[in-house]
Amino acid sequence: PAHAAPSGNRDVIVHLFQWRWKSIADECRTTLGPHGFGAVQVSPPQEHVVLPAEDYPWWQDYQPVSYKLDQTRRGSRADFIDMVNTCREAGVKIYVDAVINHMTGTGSAGAGPGSAGSSYSKYDYPGIYQSQDFNDCRRDITNWNDKWEVQHCELVGLADLKTSSPYVQDRIAAYLNELIDLGVAGFRIDAAKHIPEGDLQAILSRLKNVHPAWGGGKPYTFQEVIADSTISTGSYTHLGSVTEFQYHRDISHAFANGNIAHLTGLGSGLTPSDKAVVFVVNHDTQRYEPILTHTDGARYDLAQKFMLAHPYGTPKVMSSYTWSGDDKAGPPMHSDGTTRPTDCSADRWLCEHRAVAGMVGFHNAVAGQGIGSAVTDGNGRLAFARGSAGYAAFNATNTAWTRTFTTSLPDGVYCDVANGTFVDGVCDGPSYQVSGGKFTATVPANGAVALHVEAPG
Ligand code: LAG
Ligand code: CA
């Protein structure tokens, strides 16, 4: 049912993890729209638990208390609506992180009030869900080889919704449809593999069409499926896109190890490209199983640039904040636990997406062109063409790589969008002259050079 692809070529997703709605609206207007980003994955907007005793961890969001959109740490319902509209006017879709497998757990606050003031206790959410709306297996998932258990018992102790119940399906669909009515264009389905496929299908089949600006079809959905030998991404691809965690592991190890020469074939054998949402890192892996993250500096930015240059999958760029010590640490916040506005040059906001923004234009300009004419130099260097629309070179070594590349880009001067950006006809990076089908470049250590037809120098 819900599987319309993002419209046009603007399909790149950026995850503005924990950003306030107002800050996202500003970023859509000033940065995301002009650079051609397609969509923002926003943090879960529904009412959630509030845990002052644990210093307001980021993961409050993943314990829903109700589907009210007011008074989360990121702003009001009115702020949310303003963000959706402002981003749409900038050509940027909003994808909501939909937490629909479960409600709250038993943490430092086992009972209400939630962030919008609602009272609750585990298995009891007045006016929404009561005990009969939860699965009967009221214990943690222990045997991850048992598909029934993975889908009907509790993920880290979170009250598992009885998604087989038509009432629960209706209630979840009502929440998602309210978001569609507000202009939301798609959803990340949190913990999708913990929801039986048939139940998820029943929920998604109840969804309305999205805003006409986004084509008016069913919402774009990507399901978080951490595939293993018990549950594969293929169990969910008939319902929409899926997150491809093997891609995350493959690209991260390759760049971490400086072993990138073989990456032209990245993604082969994995989920079909048109169903795969791909990423170098997400908010969980950067904490719990880091391979390559913002702490790795240039090599990490290089991997995100490569993802934007390579044809496999729908890229999702991470943009987060630093933390020290405990991995539950929340974003920069006020003393009451509400999040501070993003300032990319202050606090702990990283704004990683800005470092790779020029490559979004490359991704959009070369859409539909295959990868070809690969050139390597040892294990750590790889350059390739995207038809005659673009050419990119990647250097995952600690020494610069100078050579003359052969390209089918038309002769002319091109903006290097790996080291600068091209917005409103202005190139703010280096430029290169292609003549006679060749150009000579010095690809920086742990850096890239990328030229495409829509960015003259
Ligand atoms: C996800 N995808 O399937 C999210 O990407 C992931 O970030 C969520 O876990 C998880 N599923 C549930 O939506 C996060 C934190 C957990 C946290 C959970 C609920 O990674 O650490 O659990 O959100 O807030 C916390 C405590 C647990 C406790 C649980 C219930 O860490 O020890 O059992 O709350 O009280
Ligand atoms: Ca479940």
UniProtKB/TrEMBL annotation:
Q: Does the keyword Cell inner membrane apply?
A: no
**What GO terms are given for molecular function?**
alpha-amylase activity; metal ion binding; starch binding
EC no. given is 3.2.1.1
Keywords for this entry? Calcium, Carbohydrate metabolism, Glycosidase, Hydrolase, Metal-binding, Signal
Q: Which reaction does it catalyse?
A: Endohydrolysis of (1->4)-alpha-D-glucosidic linkages in polysaccharides containing three or more (1->4)-alpha-linked D-glucose units
GO terms of biological process kind = carbohydrate metabolic process
- Source superkingdom: Bacteria
The answer, when asked if Transferase is one of the entry's keywords, is: no
- Required cofactor(s): Ca(2+)
Belongs to which family?
A: Belongs to the glycosyl hydrolase 13 family.
- Protein name per Swiss-Prot or TrEMBL: Alpha-amylase
Q: Which organism is it from?
A: Thermobifida fusca TM51
